[in-house]
Design brief:
By secondary structure, the protein is an alpha+beta fold. 37% of the residues lie in helices and 29% in strands.
Length: 139
């Protein structure tokens, strides 16, 4: 089975809480481990930027669940590629919250001081997540 990497952006729904984020992470980690899916989630209180890696069928199944998840709005695929190896193989779902450390890194990949994943390319989104992976410890 081919490996693929999907990177998408979405806007959070109104009324999203910290508990909702914890629930998303807990569910993703549990389910991704069973399905041999890896990835990372960047969250800045307005947007999700997420990378999902695994078999084409499993990544597609997960993406369809996200499309129907009321916690996400305006979901846009930034990148979908066949890959030779995973970049986030250590994490069934790494989590990078926005902090004072992440903000200058996100600005390197954006045309604005305020991070908005809708304004970056798929390649920039991938580069951003890789740079953050190397620069900070994920949760």
């Amino acid at each position: 089975m081919y490996l693929v990497r999907l990177i998408y952006a979405s806007r959070i729904s109104d009324g999203m809480s910290n508990q909702d984020i914890e629930n998303i992470l807990e569910s993703a980690r549990k389910n991704n481990r069973k399905e041999n899916v890896t990835g990372v989630l960047l969250f800045n209180r307005n947007y999700f930027l997420q990378c999902i890696e695994g078999s084409r069928s499993k990544v597609n199944q997960i993406y369809h669940k996200i499309l129907n998840d009321q916690r996400h709005q305006e979901i846009v695929i930034l990148s979908y590629d066949e890959i030779n190896k995973r970049d986030f193989s250590d994490w069934h779902m790494g989590y990078i919250p926005e902090t004072a450390v992440t903000m200058p890194i996100t600005q390197q990949f954006s045309s604005s001081e305020i991070f908005n994943p809708y304004e970056i390319s798929g390649a920039s989104a991938h580069g951003l997540l890789l740079t953050l992976k190397e620069a900070i410890k994920t949760i």
